[in-house]
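As a representative case, the lines below give one protein's residues and fold tokens.
***
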Amino acid sequence: MAREKTIFFCKECGTEYPKWLGQCPACKSWDSLVEAPKTKAPSGRTSADPFRRQSATPVTLREVPVQEEPRTTTRMEELDRVLGGGIVAGSLVLTSGDPGIGKSTLLLQMCRNLAEGGTKVLYVSGEESLTQIKLRAMRIGECGENLLFLSETDLGIISEQILSVRPQVVIIDSVQTMMMPDSSGAPGGPMQIREITAYLMRIAKEESITVFLVGHVTKDGMVAGPKMLEHMVDTVLYFEGDSTTSYRILRAVKNRFGSTNEIGVFEMRGDGLQEVLNPSEHMLRGMPEGEPGSVVAVTMEGTRPLLVEVQALVCKTTFSQPRRTTAGTDLNRLNLLTAVMQRRTGVEVSQCDTYVNIAGGMRVTEPALDLPIILALWSSYRNKPLEPHTVAFGEVGLTGELRSVTQPLLRVREAMKLGYRACILSQSDCESIRDKVPSDVKLYGLRNIGELKK
């Protein structure tokens, strides 16, 4: 008789190993591996399976009808933008984010809007009681008759209610609290999460029900559970934000029904999340005028141009090792840019403490932020502000050359909408869009940051 194989799962990241280890090599967590028997999945559906259907047959692409996926609007423009135009029937969406960031609030507001539009919604919570949900819902507004709530963790009971109520949208808050009695492993473990997600995916696809899953995150900001969870779902949304600011960013990192890396901007208020339809204007609100070290950068988030303020402070250090600190951007990129700046412009920033901040709580890692960072450092070091109503964007190489970036014309037009009439960019981008912008807009094309000496 063959011996039953045993595998070990990491409770933090879900990575599988054939034997026990003290530290998980993937996420570096100590004492996080748990033993779980490797059970065989059923070879087929049983007669008692409520989702039993006939087996599929292979076809050619010519036999597949092409039709536009019907979408249901959430009546939240920012959320529809991230989803690719609205909710697709039968899709499986994973929403993740830090604790208290506003995931449940966002989904509850979406459910309220859908219910008001005549869509039947079932909100299943495994973390809160019905009383807690009602207290939270009272801040948002009254919920209609089409929005039903269920406080349950047993997926068997939940599936029975789904088949009984027949909603068009189901919210599972959260997938880590759900439990399948017939599956091995503890609730929230890798095996439970995989089985639950696979079962909910069958419900979504075979019954044309849109399922939203709320996922917890680890201390590193990744979705808790096996990585397979993100591969199984159709859309992965990350809800980001700084707890010290009121702005929240909803970012799509995977979307089978739309473009990825789209963002939606929200503001957390006492009555829930409010959409920010013009995030550039909000990000620049309160920006100082005529101050050295302050530069407006034009970045791209998906297909949306966004204006953010880059602040830099350069001062002589009193220590043997100068400090490098960033907030909202990559520290390693700052170290690289300061080295390039010192070599190509002759500015001795190696003996100075350097601080860079992206105002407004945004986190930007796009290469087009290179030139604004260097300009902010240059302005702070020389104690001279840039020309008023000036924006900048461009990627900087190790030799100091300025490279072109994507959508330069769209970036300039977004800056023009907010009253900016001067732009510093690469020479190649400047030549490509010079004839497409009004004559009153000044374009300063640079080939190398060494031209800043002039």
Summary: The mean pLDDT is 88.
